[in-house]
Amino acid sequence: MNHKVAFSFADGKTLFFEAGANELLLDAALRNGVNIPLDCREGVCGTCQGRCESGQYTLDYVDEEALSAQDLAQRKILACQTRLQSDATFLFDFDSSLCNAAGTQTVQGVVTNIELVSRSTAILHLDASANAQQLDFLPGQYARLKVPETSQWRSYSFANRPNSRNQLQFLIRLLPDGVMSNFLREQCQPGMTIELEAPLGSFYLRHVDKPLVLVAGGTGLSAFLGMLDELAVEGGRGHPVHLFYGVTQDADLCEIQRLDSYQARIPGFEYQAIVSQPSEQWQGKVGFIPEHFDVERLQRRSFDIYMCGPPPMVEAIKGWLDKQQLQKFTMYHEKFIDSNSR
Length: 342
Ligand code: FES
Hints:
Layout: E1 3-9, E2 14-19, H1 25-31, E3 49-54, E4 57-59, H2 69-73, E5 76-78, E6 82-84, E7 88-92, E8 105-118, E9 121-127, E10 142-146, E11 153-157, E12 167-173, H3 179-186, E13 193-200, E14 212-217, H4 221-234, E15 241-247, H5 256-265, E16 269-275, E17 285-286, H6 295-300, E18 303-309, H7 311-323, E19 329-335
Parallel strand pairs: 1-7, 14-15, 14-18, 15-16, 16-17, 18-19
Antiparallel strand pairs: 1-2, 3-5, 3-7, 4-6, 8-9, 8-13, 9-12, 10-11, 10-13
Bound molecules: FE2/S2 (inorganic) cluster.
């Protein structure tokens, strides 16, 4: 049985290919035109070193000069000695351009729906099934969308997981005056075509071996919807998942029913919606996200924390984490500014 492989690089690009059962990872990469740097091919020089972010594997020979026991415990691998036992994702600490392979695709998506999901947010549904191949991306990554009849591109995280029908979703904040926002409000109709470039970004769900804390600010929720879709299909990965979802006003909250549905489909999943400037009708949590972290729970054991939202939110949470006496944790984050950059 073949295994699906994703190679992610320091420049945020990701390359996808298939490896045969028991095939060496390096051989599979080279066969698919992904020419990662190599030298000895014998597990000695360490040139083909990467880290397994998710999936199961075995290693043939690894010289201790190439990888230490600590490296191995951190799931570092040598591609020339790695054999896969499942689909897997690997991170390499150099740019994809070194591999002499093109990872990002440009495809056409046909608008099937512009779904208004809150006062300030829409989900853009695109059908990219005219593309013969599945558009591969890792849940949490993003795409650049070209605003039709302009030269402007805007970046949005996928709000669902990759699928063979190439049905794509993006959670988009509708700004009072933004080029994509104006297009969606005033011109966009089902049947129109939008060009997109993907996959992009190094924010994606890694190997899960400890509890997850997910922190979404506003439409930063989009990346987590993709990750949670993935976890829901898998029935979770055996560890609790706690999402903190912060917005400015309660009218900005969206996809609450979808979050409720994950509670039934992902064992150990819970979430809190937190509003910083609530209306009189709001009866839920109020304030900023760190005020609602359970410090004792976070102190009890190590965890992975993923954050996606505006820079002030990410910086505030990093500052809060610095001040706590916490067990070891690993942090991944994606900052974005609503207008056009991330
Ligand atoms: S190429 Fe030397 S360790 Fe893989």
